[in-house]
Structures are given as structure tokens and as C-alpha cells.
Specification:
Number of helices: 11
CATH topology of the largest domain: TIM Barrel
CATH superfamily of the largest domain: Glycosidases
Distance between the termini: 38 Å
Largest sheet: 8 strands, parallel, barrel
CATH architecture of the largest domain: Alpha-Beta Barrel
Strand order of the largest sheet: 3-4-7-8-9-10-11-12
Bound molecules: alpha-L-arabinofuranose
Radius of gyration: 23 Å
Number of domains: 2
Number of strands: 25
Structural class: alpha/beta
């Protein structure tokens, strides 16, 4: 990695320069019926850690700490072949079926109502997907009635007969999953999907006009149909939806760590393009309605991408895409969340994909649980980033990357929560070798002090936690910088993420 000789940066903060309130829903998660995410992950009656309903108590505790504000369910590619009625009612009457998306056996022992119970346990609001692959718009409407309807009609009464008198009042609904992808069961062209989503949305809203709907957008910025697919689907469904989704999985397949650590520029470009598409469609439709972005699948995923990682050989809960996360992955996750703050004007929902075992911050065996490296930056952002995101100025030395040219050595975001007299600063040092001294300057409201500082760091970008060595990459408290004369100075090590918690 060639870097500038300078290793000093300046960050200027003005709490009047607000980008937008931070939507708490950007700290959301995703739970698909895939591999060992549901079965053996959150639900495992045979585990010594299971509670009376079969949920893993140790996993619930770790998820509570991550504090997902919402969890998207039940898929993913699984969604596009899912018959929701299979997963409700007496367990011994639920059918086992082939899940064609992941070539697994779906026992249906966990379904919509169990998911609602699980969400209550982790204080997350449910975000349900309706099947736009093999499912009809009638099935989608029926599911809204089942979840949110009041007594006296078929599907609401069915829910009550299943033991859930009170409506679940699910507010967030995804209109399918990755319908732009040829791999999707029932894949549609953009105009076909736009029409189907619009008509499903109409029926779903007629069931409950308080719901919010999320349209499928591109499943990656690398799709050949991006961003035309987004434009076409949005033009057709604009007035009926509240959010437009995007998905992206980051990769360091070429083992080019300097470029990998600069990926925030790609994440920002993806959001910028879709924000432009939203503005274009709004103007073209002469609409007064606004649609925001929902990054409802995001994470690093490239190591577990072989054929055997993707196919379950028709077994229940097979080991699928159990990516092991290392330090450099954690630093990419931290930058991604910096981007969520910097783009908080347009990005209102983001779901880390996924929650347990399947490309996840948490791994389990029947007896044990492991927090992976990416657990820690997510937990710190989820805990500290609140209020408004600030438009800060960062002046940093540059380094060269093969993929993106010259990039700043640090990546920073900041939040300010006036009501709670709190502020936070999040700093990634991308350098593999150099520490960075950072002068923080406040232009208006200065912190009284720093309450705490936390760091995720290491010398080996490939270092990862394991059951034998679970504390290789964790968040540790570090010395807080002293504030004097509207400034403070701190030095962060190479390959590090630092989160500062300020009293304002
Ligand atoms: O999260 C794993 C898979 O990635 C999801 O099922 C799909 O939506 C995406 O392609």
C-alpha cells in the first residue's frame, strides 16, 4: 500500500450542519429460512440453551445487544417459493416441503407467528415479505389480513384460532425479493414486476392503510439491468410504495485489501444513483409523494460462495454460506455504516444480512455461540449513532487503490443527539501500516467531555474469531481524548475502527 508521508488528519464538526435525522431502522437485520439461520440458529428446541418455546436464550441475548430495530423475514430467495399458510397453525399439521431456492427441506416448524414472538423477544419490529414469485396478489392480501385483521373475517379468525387474538400490526412489508434476478423463482421483467407489485400493494393497503411498502430494486449495482430496472419498476408503482430496496454484498475476492477498504465510495455511488433515480421518477410523475431507500440486504460475502455453500441437498438446516468474518470485513462493515449516516437524507432502512449462521455476526453450534468480528462495529453504531447525522469536513492524507484511485486514509461519520446531550464520532483508519493522528475541531457546540471510546483493531487484516479463540477481534475500551479549547486530538492505530461517545 503506498501512502502519503503525512499521517495527520483534521476533522471539523459543526452541529448546525445537519444532513438529516438518522432513521433508527438503518440498524435492522434479516432472517431468512436458509441454512442454519432459523433452525439451529434462533430456533433449536434440542439445544441446552433453548427456552420453553425453542428459542436460543444465548442468541436472543446477543441479538438484544445488537438492537436490530426491525427484522426482515422470511427471505431472501426463499420467499419467492414460500406458501405462508404452510407455516401457521398446529405444528404437527404443517407440511414439510422442498425449498427450491436453496435445495433444502423446509419443515415449517417455524413460521409467521413464531417470528412475531421472536421479534418481541428482541424488541424488533417485524418486516414481512410477500411472495411475488409463485405467490399471487391475493396471497399477499390474505397475509396482511391474517397478520393485521380484526376478528370477523376468514384470515383474521384463522390467526385467532392459531392462538393470537391481538393483531400483529405489521407495518413494514416487502413486495417480493430480488425480482430482477434470473435466479429468482418466478423472476419478472421490470415492467411485469412493477405492475404486479403495484396491484399487490393496492390490495394490501385496502386491507390496512397504515402499512408501509418496500419495492424491490436492483439486487446489486453490478446487475446488467441496473439502474433501468429501478426506474421502470418505480415509474409503475411510485404512488403505492414508501421505500425502494437495494442489495449489495461486498467482496475481496482479488485479495486487494487497499481497494476493499475503500469500498465506501462504491456504496455511496450506488445510493447516489438510486437517489437520482428517485428524483427523476418523482419529477416525471409530477408527484408530491416521496419514496426513500431501503438497503435491505448488505454485508460482506465472498468466501462461502462455492456450489456446496449454496445447495442444501434436500436436508433440513444444512450448513449454507457460513462466512467467517475477519478484521478487514469488520472495517468494511464500519464504513458501510458511516455511509448510512452520511446518506441519512435518502436511506431510511438497512438490514444486515443476515442475523445468525448465514453470513452473520453470530455463529452457533448446539452448545455454543460465537460473536464474529462484524458484530462489534454494528453493535457500536446501533448503540451510539442517534439524533441527526452531521455533514463534517474531513481533511486526510490519501493512499492509492487499484480500484478507486486515490482515497483518504480515514473514513469518518458523526451524529448529534441534541435532546439527549449526546454525540458520536466513528472513524475507520484504512492504513495497513500507519497510525493516524486526528485533530477534532468543533465549530459551534463543543462536547463537555468524552464518556467512552471503543476500538476494534488488529495487525492482521485476516484475523478472525473462532470458538477456540473468540476474542481476537472484539471491541475494547480505549483512552478518551481530552477536549480543550474547542478541540481534541487522538491517535488511532492502523487497521482500526474507533467509536467516540461524547457528552454534549
Ligand atoms: O442473503 C442470501 C441471499 O442473497 C438472499 O436469499 C438473496 O436475496 C440474496 O441474493
Amino acid at each position: 500500500m503506498s501512502t502519503s508521508k503525512l499521517s495527520r488528519s483534521k476533522v471539523s464538526i459543526d452541529t448546525n450542519r445537519v444532513i438529516s435525522p438518522i432513521s433508527p431502522l438503518v440498524f435492522s437485520g434479516f432472517a431468512e429460512h436458509m441454512g442454519r439461520m432459523i433452525y439451529d440458529g434462533i430456533y433449536d428446541p434440542a439445544s441446552p440453551h433453548a427456552d420453553e418455546s425453542g428459542l436460543r436464550k444465548d442468541v436472543l441475548a446477543a441479538l438484544r445487544e445488537l438492537n436490530f430495530r426491525s427484522i426482515r423475514y422470511p427471505g431472501g430467495n426463499f420467499l419467492s417459493g414460500y406458501r405462508w399458510e404452510d407455516g401457521v397453525g398446529p405444528r404437527d399439521q404443517r407440511p414439510a416441503r422442498r425449498d427450491l431456492a436453496w435445495q433444502s427441506l423446509e419443515t415449517n416448524q417455524f413460521g409467521t407467528n413464531e417470528f412475531m414472538d421472536f421479534c418481541k423477544q428482541v424488541n424488533a419490529q417485524p418486516m414481512l415479505g410477500v411472495n411475488m414469485g409463485t405467490g399471487t396478489i391475493q396471497d399477499a392480501s390474505n397475509l396482511v389480513e391474517y397478520c393485521n385483521g380484526t376478528p370477523g373475517t376468514k384470515y383474521a379468525d384463522m390467526r385467532i384460532a392459531h392462538g393470537y387474538r391481538d393483531p400483529h400490526n405489521v407495518k413494514l412489508w416487502c413486495l417480493g425479493n430480488e425480482m430482477d434476478g434470473p435466479w429468482q423463482i418466478g423472476h419478472l421483467e421490470a415492467d411485469e414486476y412493477g405492475r404486479k407489485a403495484r396491484e399487490a400493494a393496492k390490495m394490501m393497503r385496502w386491507q390496512d392503510d397504515s402499512i408501509e411498502l418496500i419495492l424491490c430494486g436492483s439486487s446489486s449495482s453490478l446487475m446488467p439491468t441496473y439502474p433501468e430496472w429501478d426506474r421502470v419498476a418505480l415509474e409503475l408503482a411510485w404512488e403505492q410504495v414508501n421505500y425502494h430496496s437495494l442489495h449489495y454484498y461486498a467482496s475481496n475476492e482479488k485479495n486487494d485489501t487497499p481497494s476493499f477498504l475503500a469500498l465506501s465510495t462504491e456504496f455511496e455511488a450506488f445510493l447516489d444513483t438510486l437517489a437520482g433515480t428517485l428524483r427523476y421518477v418523482k419529477a416525471k410523475r409530477r408527484s408530491k409523494h416521496d419514496v426513500y431507500l431501503s438497503w435491505d440486504e448488505w454485508n460482506v460475502w465472498y468466501k462461502a460462495r462455492g456450489r456446496s455453500d449454496m445447495e442444501g441437498k434436500w436436508t433440513p438446516s444444512p450448513h449454507l454460506i457460513e462466512e467467517v468474518y475477519n478484521l478487514e470485513d469488520a472495517l468494511v462493515v464500519a464504513q458501510w455504516m458511516n455511509v448510512f449516516l452520511r446518506k441519512s437524507d435518502v436511506l431510511k432502512i438497512a438490514c444486515l444480512a443476515q442475523a445468525v449462521n448465514v453470513i452473520a455476526p453470530i455463529l452457533t453450534t448446539r452448545d455454543a455461540m460465537l460473536k464474529q468480528s462484524i458484530y462489534y462495529p454494528f453493535m457500536l453504531f446501533s448503540k451510539l449513532a442517534a439524533g441527526t447525522a452531521l455533514d463534517i469536513s474531513v481533511n486526510a492524507p490519501m493512499y492509492h487503490t487499484a480500484q478507486f484511485g486515490d482515497m483518504p486514509l480515514i473514513d469518518v461519520s458523526a451524529s448529534y443527539d441534541e435532546a439527549n446531550h449526546a454525540g458520536a464520532i466513528f472513524i475507520v483508519n484504512r492504513s495497513l501500516t500507519e497510525s493516524m493522528t486526528i485533530d477534532l475541531n468543533w465549530l459551534d457546540c463543543v462536547p463537555q467531555s468524552f464518556k467512552a471510546a471503543y476500538q476494534v483493531a488488529g495487525t492482521d487484516p485476516k484475523a478472525a474469531n473462532s470458538y477456540e479463540n473468540p476474542n481476537q477481534i472484539v471491541s475494547v475500551p480505549v483512552a478518551v481524548p481530552q477536549v480543550s479549547d474547542k478541540s481534541a486530538t487522538l491517535t488511532v492505530p492502523p487497521l482500526s475502527f474507533t467509536a467516540l461517545d461524547a457528552v454534549m
